[in-house]
From TrEMBL:
Protein origin, superkingdom: Bacteria
Transmembrane stretches, start-end: 20-43, 55-71, 77-96, 108-130, 142-159, 171-192, 198-218, 230-250, 262-281, 286-305
Taxonomic lineage: Bacteria, Pseudomonadati, Pseudomonadota, Betaproteobacteria, Burkholderiales
Keyword list, A-Z: Membrane, Transmembrane, Transmembrane helix
Name this polypeptide is given: Uncharacterized protein
Organism for this UniProt entry: Paraburkholderia antibiotica
Length: 486
């Protein structure tokens, strides 16, 4: 589904126009949004919650909402919509819980900002209408929210094209697949503790059941305060989002329900539910706080590991980043390798990937503006610029694939060290026929040379007669890599 994201595109436009599209501003924006989300939760609790809970709620909110389980949202600047959609929704619910005469227009404004963040924002106005019922707001306010929500949905969905995902054979005849996906989504932090999908589903079901019982009890006893309505509405939006994800993504398989980007709403749901329980169960405050602290403590070792060793995270290895480099390298030099591009874009969107890569290269956007990716396909070998003192390394192997030839080896720049070094491949006549890039893990090289552990390189070259020669492009000059491949 096309989310028709607006807010994140505005941030990306600023990043592109002002900061060179290096993704730094976009990533910083993600953290700023998360700080604002935590600040909103803590502010509402300090202003309206039980005084005895303030310190615990504050530490819990910061601890869980900055968990590295959601690394995809913290490391990709364009994932800002995953945070802004919940931030604006909660600001809207908080504003609507007020008793002043400006509550409705301000709440609608925040709801519209949530809609402009991501598709699930469409549910905000309808959840807000339910919040109005819980708070016994005037009927005209509730009907206004429903009407504005319907108009917004009609505009948003007009001309929308849905991408229907194929159903894998193993799920074609499974029962209650969408419902099972829904509960795994809600309980996905459990999978990061080494537990499986069944445990995550049980955890999600338990949280959902507790929330349902508490809300029904509060409604039946007429104990819903404005602050409690804020917590209930915010958690209700998490539920609405989970329903949307389950409906549109179950075909990918249950494992996708605990992708790291989906951990943000799951962790936020935990924070909201625990805060609500602390609010309504004062006699069970110690029990609730202890259980939450144990849960957070169980996550702590994982945080310490992943801060320094991201490759140990589930579904993510450091090698994936190098595959992404090879994907954009192949597209840039006209030797596209779909098997690497599939690590960035799904195969069904391969043409879209190529079009976007070509546009980025033509416009010198972000990493295409400088460095190895900019130089690939542009720099040509020149024997007059050869200086073999600038590097050490080898060209170890040459092979063939469906596109052309490939080559591997390792290289370490003695001077002008950069995060990645461009490798220029030539034929025996010195004509440039391909390119490679360093960044491939080579622990053996690091052990022997005391150099970096990612000194390995892989390259693509056109088919042709004769042997390949490899040169590291260092400081505007070409340093020969000794060949063991020919």
């Amino acid at each position: 589904m096309e989310h028709r994201i607006v807010f994140s595109r505005v941030l990306f436009w600023f990043d592109y126009k002002i900061f060179g599209a290096l993704n730094v501003f976009s990533v910083i924006s993600v953290f700023v949004l998360m700080v604002l989300l935590c600040a909103a939760l803590i502010y509402e609790n300090c202003k309206n919650g039980v005084r005895e809970n303030r310190w615990f709620v504050g530490f819990m909110t910061i601890g869980l909402m900055f968990s590295w389980l959601q690394y995809e949202n913290f490391t990709s600047g364009f994932q800002s919509q995953f945070i802004s959609v919940y931030l604006f929704a909660m600001l809207g619910f908080a504003r609507f819980s007020r008793s002043d005469r400006h509550r409705l227009p301000m709440a609608v404004l925040f709801a519209l900002m949530s809609i402009l963040s991501m598709a699930n924002g469409l549910a905000v106005l309808f959840v807000m209408a339910v919040q109005g019922v819980l708070l016994k707001r005037p009927r005209r306010e509730i009907l206004s929210l429903g009407l504005i929500g319907a108009i917004a949905a009609a505009i948003y969905l007009h001309g929308l094209r849905l991408n229907l995902l194929p159903v894998p054979p193993e799920l074609a005849h499974a029962h209650l697949v969408s419902l099972r996906y829904f509960f795994i989504f809600l309980g996905n932090p459990a999978t990061y503790l080494g537990l499986g999908n069944l445990a995550a589903g049980i955890f999600g079901l338990l949280m959902f059941a507790i929330a349902a019982v508490v809300v029904l009890w509060l409604f039946a006893t007429k104990a819903i305060t404005p602050y409690r309505s804020f917590l209930i509405a915010s958690y209700g939006f998490i539920i609405a989002s989970a329903i949307g994800v389950a409906h549109g993504r179950w075909m990918i398989g249950f494992d996708s329900a605990h992708d790291s980007r989906y951990t943000t709403p799951a962790l936020l749901g935990c924070v909201l539910l625990v805060t609500l329980l602390l609010e309504v169960l004062p006699r069970r405050r110690v029990l609730v706080a202890t259980a939450t602290a144990l849960f957070a403590t169980a996550l702590l070792p994982l945080q310490l590991v992943t801060i320094g060793h991201t490759e140990l995270m589930p579904h993510f290895v450091r090698g994936s980043i190098y595959d992404w480099k090879l994907a954009v390298l192949g597209a840039k030099i006209g030797l596209d390798h779909p098997e690497f591009a599939a690590k960035l874009f799904p195969p069904s969107a391969h043409e879209r990937f190529l079009n976007q890569a070509s546009f980025a290269a033509a416009m010198d956007i972000g990493p295409y503006a400088s460095g190895w990716l900019h130089d690939a396909g542009i720099v040509k070998y020149d024997s007059q610029l050869r200086d073999d003192s600038l590097c050490v390394g080898f060209h170890e192997h040459t092979g063939t694939d469906a596109i052309g030839r490939n080559a591997t080896g390792w290289a370490i720049a003695q001077q002008y060290r950069q995060p990645a070094t461009l490798i220029v491949l030539t034929n025996e006549n010195g004509d440039t026929v391909g390119y490679g890039v360093t960044g491939m893990e080579r622990k053996d090289v690091a052990k022997q040379t005391n150099g970096p552990a990612d000194a390995g390189w892989y390259g693509f070259a056109k088919n042709g007669p004769g042997n390949l020669q490899a040169f590291a492009y260092v400081g505007g000059k070409f340093c020969s890599l000794k060949s063991l491949a020919n």
